[in-house]
């Protein structure tokens, strides 16, 4: 599924509070009371709807309220409390259900709707807190209903993260989901003979797991998976439902997802250390004083996953997950940000985006991919970069061609499931025709009118080596090996080695060195040495006299700078490794890097051997690499 749309950050006062917090009064200019807001005609229609709803509620009071006395004995104030709550509850459901109809791309269409939805849920949450006793006595409010409201707010925060790529909102979603679990809001659901309520509980667990995965809270994930497994077993035993297979598949997917990392980092007591691969303050190598690089910044990224049989969870493959984290900073707590001095004064001022916006496209069709690509291209600000990450099965050319154009080398696969003609897949066609369900290099040519940074992880990545820079804008393609040594091929389901190098280069280095676990102290020592290697790689790039200027134009952005240095480290490591001996085992790039100054630089090779010595795996690398070519 496609996720997100780029948008300047919402004013923080419009977001709902935590469960334990208080609700700020919404700004007057955006007041959204249950009596209506906006212009007079809008207020009148809202008022009419409220009156109509009141009449319906009055008619149903005997059914709704749980009072033991006569209906006439119910105080008017309590009657109005129930009516107002029902109205807010109904309005919140309408707005929430409308979220799925919003455009999945574009800047302006969704923001005001999200704002109204946040407003109503803020009012609803505060209202049920203030009137809990009346709602318990007169409405029969159940704890699972409170949990549903909190779950919806958690979903709003999660989707706000997907729309903005601001990781702070993941912490807010986690706060709501965690409170639901701590307060056992869904604990009584299993006592009711209503399978649809149990499904709500199961879906809550699945959503909570996704948020915890994105926050690297693996200990919580493991606890949630165990609880979800017990809940699924109870659910299928009690109701004998047909969706048992689907829920068991959810368990299998998340279990495989959390075991995808090929190397474990262990504490002294053998507990697993959870490592984060988001950009930390000291993550990217600093630029030397006086270093001349471009001033471009990464603004948008399309992360596309279409690999057959790769581990996934919630339409997020391992490769997509790793690249997503490589393009984000460590999340900060939203509440702590709001309490910083000066935050109130600057709340209404434009703020610099902390993370590039991302679209997550899982197995998109060509039409979907092109639509979102065009939307990102259209909205790309000045002096900004669009990144395209393709993790997909390779599509190879069929038959012979007299030309060598941008559509003659194949590309990567797009989803063809929806494109069926007369029951037969379109790809069963004349061999002289080009593959329709393929993103060819030529398909990206129109978007090279703006700075473009492409990463292709595929068995046919070299198709994108045949690029032509038609418009003179900065353009770089980082291309994965098209094949790996046989000893590593069986790991492909757990994610690509190339993407692992871009996300967590030390873990990838340990994996190709034959290590599956490491003590925390040694891990931290190696990470420190790897930071030194990255600094030296940065100097190699910027001091090179023959490097294409496109690399330097992207080097001013922290995310792109880190990806470039990791790419060179990956390429140098594979070229020195004894089992990576075929040309197709090595990454490539467009434009080509000067090998003797980068990936085959003796100074860098010495560093890699020193890292291998620290790990006692020097024997898997060639000592005199240049002489071996």
TrEMBL record:
Whether Cytoplasm counts among this entry's keywords is yes
Q: Any one Gene Ontology biological process term?
A: negative regulation of cell migration
Write one Pfam family the protein is assigned to: SCAI
* Main subcellular localisation: cytoplasm
Q: Which InterPro entries match?
A: SCAI, SCAI_metazoan/Viridiplantae
Q: What does the UniProt entry say about where the protein is found?
A: Cytoplasm; Nucleus
Q: One cellular component GO annotation, for this chain's record? A: cytoplasm
Compositionally biased residues, Low complexity: 1-19, 34-47
For region Disordered, the annotated ranges are 1-51
Sorted keywords for this record are: Cytoplasm, Nucleus, Repressor, Signal transduction inhibitor, Transcription, Transcription regulation
Keyword hit for Cytoplasm: yes
Record-level Gene Ontology MF annotations = transcription corepressor activity
Explain the purpose of this protein.
Tumor suppressor which functions to suppress MRTFA-induced SRF transcriptional activity.
Q: How does it assemble?
A: Interacts with DIAPH1. Forms a nuclear ternary complex with MRTFA and SRF.
Task: Give the family this protein belongs to, as stated in its UniProt record.
Answer: Belongs to the SCAI family.
Name of the protein described by the UniProt record: Protein SCAI
Q: Which species is this UniProt entry from?
A: Pan troglodytes
């Amino acid at each position: 599924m496609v996720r997100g749309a780029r948008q300047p950050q919402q004013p923080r006062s419009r977001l709902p509070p935590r469960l334990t917090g208080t609700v700020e009064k919404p700004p007057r200019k955006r007041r959204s009371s249950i009596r209506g807001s906006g212009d007079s005609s809008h207020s009148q229609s809202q008022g009419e709807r409220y009156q109509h709803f009141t009449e319906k509620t009055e008619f149903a009071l005997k059914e709704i309220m749980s009072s033991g006395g006569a209906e006439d004995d119910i105080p008017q104030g309590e009657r109005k409390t129930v009516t107002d709550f029902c109205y807010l509850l109904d309005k919140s459901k309408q707005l929430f259900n409308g979220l799925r109809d919003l455009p999945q791309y574009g800047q302006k269409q969704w923001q005001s709707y999200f704002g109204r939805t946040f407003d109503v849920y803020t009012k609803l949450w505060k209202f049920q807190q203030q009137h809990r006793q009346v709602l318990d006595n007169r409405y029969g409010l159940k704890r699972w209903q409170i949990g549903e409201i909190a779950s919806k707010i958690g979903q709003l925060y999660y989707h706000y993260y997907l729309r903005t790529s601001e990781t702070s909102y993941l912490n807010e979603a986690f706060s709501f989901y965690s409170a639901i679990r701590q307060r056992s809001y869904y604990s009584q659901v299993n006592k009711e003979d209503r399978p649809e309520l149990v499904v709500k509980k199961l879906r809550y667990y699945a959503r909570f797991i996704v948020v915890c995965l994105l926050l690297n809270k693996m200990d919580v994930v493991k606890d949630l998976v165990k609880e979800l497994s017990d809940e699924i077993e109870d659910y299928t035993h009690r109701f004998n439902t047909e969706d048992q297979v689907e829920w068991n598949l959810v368990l299998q997917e998340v279990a495989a997802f959390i075991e995808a990392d090929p190397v474990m980092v262990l504490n002294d007591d053998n507990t697993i250390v959870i490592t984060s691969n988001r950009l930390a303050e000291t993550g990217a190598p600093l630029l030397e004083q006086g270093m001349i690089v471009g001033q471009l910044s990464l603004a948008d990224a399309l992360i596309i996953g279409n690999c057959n049989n790769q581990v996934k969870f919630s339409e997020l493959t391992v490769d997509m997950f790793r690249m997503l984290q490589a393009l984000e900073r460590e999340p900060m707590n939203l509440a702590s940000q709001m309490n910083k001095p000066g935050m109130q004064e600057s709340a209404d001022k434009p703020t610099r985006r902390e993370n590039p916006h991302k679209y997550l496209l899982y197995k998109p069709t060509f039409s979907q991919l092109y639509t979102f690509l065009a939307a990102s291209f259209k909205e790309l600000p000045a002096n900004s970069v669009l990144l395209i990450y393709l993790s997909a099965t390779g599509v190879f050319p069929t038959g012979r061609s007299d030309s060598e154009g941008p559509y003659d080398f194949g590309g990567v696969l797009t989803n063809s499931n929806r494109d069926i003609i007369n029951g037969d897949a379109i790809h069963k066609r004349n061999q002289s025709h080009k593959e329709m369900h393929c993103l060819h290099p030529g398909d990206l040519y129109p978007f090279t009118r703006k700075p473009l940074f492409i990463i292709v992880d595929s068995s046919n990545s070299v198709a994108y080596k045949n690029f032509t820079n038609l418009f003179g804008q900065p353009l770089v393609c980082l291309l994965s090996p098209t094949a790996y040594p046989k000893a590593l091929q069986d790991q492909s389901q757990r994610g690509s080695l190339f993407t692992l190098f871009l996300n967590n280069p030390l873990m990838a280095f340990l994996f190709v060195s034959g290590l599956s676990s490491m003590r925390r102290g040694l891990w931290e020592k190696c990470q420190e040495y790897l930071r030194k290697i990255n600094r030296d790689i940065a100097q190699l790039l910027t001091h090179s006299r023959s490097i294409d200027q496109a690399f330097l134009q992207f080097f001013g952005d922290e995310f792109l700078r880190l990806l470039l240095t990791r790419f060179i480290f990956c390429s140098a490591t594979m070229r020195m490794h004894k089992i990576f001996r075929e040309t197709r085992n090595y990454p490539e790039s467009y434009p080509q890097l000067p090998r003797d100054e980068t990936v085959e630089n003796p100074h860098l090779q010495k560093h890699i051997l020193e890292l291998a010595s620290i790990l006692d795996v020097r024997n898997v690398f060639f000592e005199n690499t240049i002489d071996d070519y």
